[in-house]
Specification:
heterodimer, A: alpha/beta, Beta-Lactamase, Rossmann fold, 2 domains, about 25% helix, B: mainly alpha, elongated
């Protein structure tokens, strides 16, 4: 089961409560949130619930099970494989990726040193984000990212939790493996936050395609240039671009004859146009396809697909509107 | 004739007893040395290797044979196999299980227990600090144990023989 890697790292106390959740709710699970001395919370597609002491789901926080300090300590031990010292980098970034691509966000006391986060101590808040790889989800998008059999640079735009990364991962996989519509291409992924490929010890735990190379937890800008020089990719895939360095690197890559697939946060194209770091990329027509996603009809609803002149080319009849559901 | 065999038997067994008691002292210093040595490598691995604690324990355990190496091996196994319990709980279980089989004393157990409480649960600087502390305390214990060994090792051996002899003389 896809939740097994999470069960493996949960403290015994908490695991009992999670395992008692009815299986249909477990399947719809999106997040598990553990906070010290506050109710154990789960978030599903239907909303959030607390778990009572007699292991029932409730929206009322009274009588709910409260994880203790020891539970939190134990959980931190388990997700860091009993070796926090080896995970200082992850703690600085505030999250740990475990097998199966599940990401655990951390909150606690931050130690600052010379203007930078040096360490996270007394971790008391955890957010387990459950990763689900949905294969062939991006297949209906393939006709749009090719024009006359030539791959187009594509930017996926969506607010958080609308399936951006899931789409990106599947596009990478489809293009790397090749489909009837597209030849197989060499794909390289810069996975700064270990979200796309969810590497554990450098090996991707999500299927990102047979001809895909992954540069795990590498800063995007320098990663893109490294890959360009070393791996001779045909497509470079990056998640959540946003800084000035990222756009500069994308200019480099695109003009070096390599395609780019990227994502960024935003509700609409207009909003992204207002971001000073990204507007240059758009007005200079770097991206030939801009796909806007939302969760209007469930995560992964395709709202619009624009070409480089910001003309909507999205044909509803070609694409079943609800992709993720 | 029977008397000679009997008295020889008494002397042999008391000599054996003396050697056995002396061996305890030798074992203790040997094990203390091994323990300090392993902790020193553990420190290097944590500082430079950044391997997970489980891996380090298992690598160290393969270096030689002996009860201290078994302790490390079991610590590694316990961390790998026990699901849902904290680092300290995993290590404490092993320590309690293996300790009676070693020649080490309570003072050393206390040192290890204190170390296990923090092992793997803080950043590198903090880990080094605690490992150094443990190694230094073990060194103290080692020096004490070494003095004791020098004092008592020979004494027990001689005492074993002489004690046997005395017994034989007293009987006859």
């Amino acid at each position: 089961m896809f939740l097994q890697p999470i069960f493996d790292v949960l403290p015994k106390n908490i695991l009992e409560y999670i395992k008692a959740i009815p299986s249909d709710t477990l399947l719809a699970l999106e997040e598990i949130r553990i906070r010290q001395n506050r109710p154990l919370e789960i978030v599903t597609s239907k909303g959030f619930f607390f778990i009572t002491k007699d292991k029932k789901l409730t929206t009322n926080f009274k009588d709910s099970f409260l994880p203790t300090k020891d539970d939190c300590l134990c959980f931190l031990n388990l997700i860091t494989k009993h070796s926090i010292y080896a995970m200082e980098e992850e703690l600085r970034h505030g999250f740990v990726t475990i097998r199966g691509g599940h990401r655990i966000g951390l909150a606690g006391k931050v130690l600052f040193h010379e203007g930078k986060v040096s360490h996270l101590r007394e971790v008391t808040g955890f957010n387990i984000r459950i990763a689900k790889q949905l294969k062939d989800l991006a297949k209906p998008l393939l006709p749009f990212v090719f024009k006359n059999e030539i791959l187009q640079n594509t930017l996926l735009i969506s607010p958080p939790k609308c399936g951006k990364t899931t789409f990106l991962r599947d596009l990478a996989r489809l293009i790397s493996n090749g489909t009837k519509l597209s030849p197989s291409l060499k794909v390289s992924i810069v996975d700064e936050r270990s979200e796309i490929a969810a590497c554990v010890c450098g090996v991707p735990t999500h299927d990102v395609g047979l001809r895909t190379d992954v540069l795990d937890s590498c800063p995007k800008a320098s990663g893109m240039l490294m890959l360009l020089r070393s791996m001779s990719p045909q497509v470079i895939v990056v998640d959540e671009i946003g800084s000035k360095e990222d756009s500069l690197a994308i200019f480099e890559v695109i003009n070096a004859g390599v395609n780019v697939f990227a994502t960024c946060h935003g509700f609409s194209l207009e909003e992204v146009m207002l971001r000073p770091t990204l507007v240059d990329l758009l007005t200079k027509r770097c991206f030939k396809r801009l796909i806007v996603l939302s969760d209007r009809e469930g995560p992964g609803t395709v709202e619009a697909i624009y070409d480089e002149y910001f003309k909507n080319i999205f044909l509803k009849e070609v694409l079943s509107n609800r992709c993720l559901k | 004739m029977l008397k000679v065999i009997g008295s020889l038997l008494i002397i042999f067994s008391s000599v054996f007893l003396g050697f056995y008691l002396a061996a305890n002292y030798i074992q203790r210093t040997k094990q203390l040395r091994q323990l300090s040595f392993l902790l020193a490598i553990l420190k290097t691995e944590i500082t430079y290797g950044l391997r997970s604690l489980t891996d380090i324990f298992e690598i160290l355990a393969k270096k030689e044979k002996g009860i201290i190496y078994d302790l490390f091996l079991n610590c590694g196994l316990s961390l790998r196999k026990n699901k849902g319990i904290s680092t300290y709980e995993c290590l404490r279980q092993v320590l309690d299980e293996i300790w009676p089989k070693t020649s080490l004393k309570d003072a050393e157990k206390q040192i290890l227990q204190n170390l296990f409480k923090v092992l793997g649960t803080s950043d590198v600087t903090n880990q080094i600090y605690h490992l150094d502390l443990a190694i230094a305390s073990l060194q103290d214990e080692f020096e004490k144990a070494y003095l004791e060994q020098k004092q008592y090792e020979k004494m027990y051996r001689t005492l074993g023989f002489l004690g046997g002899l005395l017994l034989v003389i007293l009987i006859f």
